[in-house]
Amino acid sequence: MIRYLFRRLLGAIPLVLGVATVVFFVVQLAPGDPANLLLSPGVDEEVLAQTRANFGLDDPLPVRYVKWLGSMARGDLGYSFSHGRPVIAVIGDMLPNTLILSAAALFIAFVVGVGIGIVQAVRPYSVSDSVLSVVALFFYSMPSFWLALMLILVFSYFARNVWELPIWFPASGTRSPDYDLMTTGQQIADRLRHLVLPVTALWLVLAAGVARYTRGSLLEVVGQDYVRTARAKGLPERTVILKHALRNALIPVVTLLGLYLPVLFSGTVFIETVFAWPGMGKTIVDAIGTRDYPLVMASSLIFAGMVVIGNLIADVLYAVVDPRIRYD
Q1: Predicted structure pTM score
Q2: CATH code for 2-16+94-321?
Q3: Is a pLDDT exceeding 70 seen at residue 323?
Q4: H-type helices in 153-279, by residue range?
């Protein structure tokens, strides 16, 4: 297993580097001058030239690429134009927020999705199966940014200003202005309240796909001979489904983990922008708007690395779900 992981990680280096290279040239060829965006309108041309020289923007494109590769090899991701500090410091502040948001959404999506898929597969073509299929298809077809706006409208604006409910969920940020004055328990509750809407906007869309995959896979497995044998032994139906059938049915579902990570990270770009969530998604959108090349390239590099790691985790989980799979 260790040798397999090492080979996969070693093979991922050219892939991540290739993604970063494509992003580098695409971003550099985009119209706009970061120096003009950083300085006030009408500034003297000499100041603009000096600013370009300070950030290395006056070098030819191939020279900038070679310098960027050299800096990245040394672990130096550059200096953020818009934030005025090293890129690694900006990412250190923003990345934990994205990881918390993504991990919570992914966990809830798979738990709820697998649960709904089991309910549907146990009673196929029943009223509950039909209703859950329609609901899953409804959310699966829904754009996450539109769902986010509707959640804000209903559970934040209407709940607080129209219905005057005692419980409402904040529509932006990660914590309240008086967060530092709260007790530890109040701080935890406040952070969870801020997480509810953005996480819900992500997991509802993802869980619908997981439920459909789980239902189809489980329906195929319950017809196998070993499942009929387990039933013939007199085992309870719960044991037959959860212990014998579900474990084999989860193999295609585990594949979704690797496929959902790119979808999840692209979804966080919209969700973080809608909810003003200070994470990597919102950071990369703001960096693109300000032509902050080092921050855009570093963020893209990290997103590519996360996708590679996610696919690697999915491959490892195959062996956990199915003991017959071995990586020697």
Answers
A1: 0.79
A2: 1.10.3720.10
A3: no
A4: 184-221, 225-232, 237-239, 246-274
